[in-house]
Amino acid sequence: MPKIIDHEKRKQLIAEATWRVISKQGMKGATVRNIAKEAGMSLGALRHYFPSQDRLLEFSMNLVKERVMKRIQMITASPMPPKEKVVSALMEIIPSNETTRAEMEVWMEFVFHYRNSGLPEKGNDGIRDGIAHLINLLNSCGILKPNRDLDFEIERLYALIDGLAVHAVMEPDRLTAEKIRSTLERHLDEICIFPH
Amino acid sequence: MPKIIDHEKRKQLIAEATWRVISKQGMKGATVRNIAKEAGMSLGALRHYFPSQDRLLEFSMNLVKERVMKRIQMITASPMPPKEKVVSALMEIIPSNETTRAEMEVWMEFVFHYRNSGLPEKGNDGIRDGIAHLINLLNSCGILKPNRDLDFEIERLYALIDGLAVHAVMEPDRLTAEKIRSTLERHLDEICIFPH
């Protein structure tokens, strides 16, 4: 195996260990020592890949982002009716199964950690940009109903998505995947006319 | 001054000191010692009012809730056109000025603390109930457009409010009070017909 791939793979394994530690113990458990133990490697080996805890957390955070993006790209490229495609893509951001729930919990820990640490913000999570892209696409395809205010629709869908995401973490029993999906579908039906 | 009022007032002063400590140092700074210092009293005096940190946090959390409710009741009782009344009441939940911003930051710290502590959940924050009440009221007054699905409108407005609240904390410069207000107004205009 070429060395460069091995190196990236190792970093991914460490990032995955980081998520597991955070989702079990919260951010305060995410010490370099605990993460090395979870990844089954020595502290020295881990430091070789990530000289500081901040670098490690940033890498892990970006990996969450990349994975979500990859899943959304796969949905976008697949042959589905437009409405199902849009709803399925949005469902990848909202915690509704084990994977998305763990991602969101870890993500909230990250965001909270950075807010409290006084460190500079690590940029936005890209969700607003993704939703702006989606609304503009629906508009240029003629799926969005005519004369809609695009800025308003972006702001509203963005708030709706993150509100549902927070509620899904807080009240997983009440806000089932089915309920989230039907809320999104009804909202989209109001602002779009989907071709069959 | 009757003793009972003095007692309640003292508890309020301690709760306010608790908020200041949390909003400056986060939950990890909210030790009984730090709070006593901020309130300008001895550890023993504070313990007289709140035997445990959990009791103190619960009292402080409920006080936030009560204050928001009192402000909303004042708005509801005041002579304003219906639309302005609804928007103003909702604006009390979303961080858009110093008071609501501090309340929301402290609230998020509380919620996060309880989620991570493994303590039983302290009930919901009452926002969903308030929004359900509002939608039902708009419907029975004939202000909500006919044939709306009430469950959907409650779930959507609840997610919209909390999504805007989270974004207002994360991006205070982008999401100004004006922008929040206009987003709410447009959404309400879509689902309601307000009398003039």
What do these coordinates show?
The structure is a homodimer of 196-residue chains. Chain A has 196 residues and is mostly helical. Chain A has helices at residues 3-25, 32-39, 43-49, 53-77, 82-91, 98-117, 127-140, 150-170, 177-191. Chain A contains nine helices and no strands. In chain A, α1 (3-25) crosses α4, α5 (82-91) crosses α9 and α7 (127-140) packs across α8. The radius of gyration of chain A is 19 Å and the shape is elongated. At the A-B interface, α6, α8 and α9 of A face α6, α8 and α9 of B.
User: Residue ranges of chain A: pLDDT <50 for 5 or more in a row?
Assistant: none
Mean pLDDT of chain A: 87
Query: Given the structure, what is the number of helices of chain A?
Result: 9
Greatest interface: A-B, 28 and 28 residues
Proportion of helical residues of chain A:
over 70%
Q: How many beta-strand runs of chain A?
A: 0
N-to-C span of chain A? 48 Å
Oligomer: homodimer
Secondary-structure-derived class of chain A: mainly alpha
What sequence of helices (H) and strands (E) makes up the elements of chain A? HHHHHHHHH
Beta fraction of chain A: under 5%
Give the C-alpha Rg of chain A: 19 Å
Task: Profile the largest sheet of chain A.
Answer: none
Q: Any idea what the shape of chain A is?
A: elongated
